[in-house]
């Protein structure tokens, strides 16, 4: 199997379990990373590291999410990795989301209030203005906590966080219009990409959204 490996904290549990099964069952799996973090996760778990250069068609990708609505529209990018995550997910026949139950919403914005947008550094200020002028809400450049200045993505870009207003339903159109803004690299809106989402509850329960 050619398997995309997402980024964030929840994926760590999935990769740990995957590595256990590969060891015990001798599964033949090539893992495609979606970030430097995912690459380190694959290597430190002694899984086979692959790339889109050699295997551009994946059987499946497993990833986390910041929020999942009832149409399986996702907000991703809480960890600033949405660009490579979306590329890898687009190459996979199936995108499987693993998250805790706090990510499970009926509509976006109930629990997670922002949409990350990766932008070319030159364009961050015009995009901050344009997004809020066109769609409302507020937007800010994501600043580092343990690094002076803005955070820099794995691709050398900035992240703009758009705190969107309530009432938006047509995420497909919003996503397309933001993507068309000069300087936007990728949004954290994953529309019509995921086929299934598994949510783990604090009591160890499991719920599934299809
Ligand atoms: O940055 C990302 O897209 C991550 O996958 C994020 O959406 C989920 O991270 P978490 O599993 O740490 O909540």
SSE blueprint and pairings:
Elements: E1 2-5, H1 10-25, E2 30-33, H2 36-44, E3 48-49, E4 60-63, E5 67-68, E6 74-75, H3 82-90, E7 95-100, E8 114-119, H4 124-135, E9 138-141, E10 158-163, H5 171-179, E11 184-187, E12 189-190, E13 196-200, E14 206-209
Describe what this molecule looks like in 3D.
With 210 residues, this protein is α/β, with parallel strands linked by helices. It has two domains: 2-104 and 190-202, Rossmann fold; 114-186, ACT domain (Alpha-Beta Plaits, 2-Layer Sandwich), CATH 3.30.70.260. Helix content is 26%, strand content 26%. It contains five helices and 14 strands. It has helices at 10-25, 36-44, 82-90, 124-135, 171-179, and strands spanning 2-5, 30-33, 48-49, 60-63, 67-68, 74-75, 95-100, 114-119, 138-141, 158-163, 184-187, 189-190, 196-200, 206-209. Strands 3-2-1-4-7-13-14 form a seven-stranded mixed sheet. Strands 9-10-8-11 form a four-stranded antiparallel sheet. A hairpin with a 5-residue loop joins strand 13 and strand 14 (206-209). The longest helix is centred in the N-terminal third of the chain and has 16 residues, at 10-25. The protein is globular, with a radius of gyration of 17 Å. The two termini are 22 Å apart. The model has no long low-confidence stretch (mean pLDDT 98). Bound molecules: D-4-phosphoerythronic acid (DER). D-4-phosphoerythronic acid is lined by residues 6-10, 63-66, 76-79, 81-82, 85. D-4-phosphoerythronic acid (DER) binds at residues 6-10, 63-66, 76-79, 81-82, 85.
């Amino acid at each position: 199997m050619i398997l995309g490996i997402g980024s964030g904290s929840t994926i760590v549990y999935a990769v740990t379990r995957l590595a256990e099964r590969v060891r015990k069952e001798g599964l033949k799996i090539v893992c495609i990373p979606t970030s430097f973090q995912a690459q380190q996760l694959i290597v430190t778990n002694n899984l086979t590291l692959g790339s889109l250069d050699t295997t551009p068609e994946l059987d499946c990708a497993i990833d986390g999410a910041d929020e999942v609505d009832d149409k399986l529209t996702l907000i991703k990018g809480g960890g600033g990795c949405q660009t490579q995550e979306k590329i890898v997910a687009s190459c996979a026949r199936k995108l499987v989301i693993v998250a805790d139950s706090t990510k499970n919403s009926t509509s976006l914005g109930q629990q997670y209030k922002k949409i990350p947008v990766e932008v070319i550094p030159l364009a961050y200020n015009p995009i901050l203005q344009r997004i809020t002028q066109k769609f409302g809400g507020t937007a800010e450049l994501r600043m580092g906590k343990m690094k002076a200045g803005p955070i820099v993505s794995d691709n050398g870009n900035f992240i703009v966080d758009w705190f969107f207003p309530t009432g938006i339903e047509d995420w497909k159109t919003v996503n397309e219009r933001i993507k068309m803004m000069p300087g936007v690299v990728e949004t954290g809106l994953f529309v019509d990409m995921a086929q299934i989402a598994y949510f783990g509850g604090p009591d160890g329960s499991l719920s599934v959204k299809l």
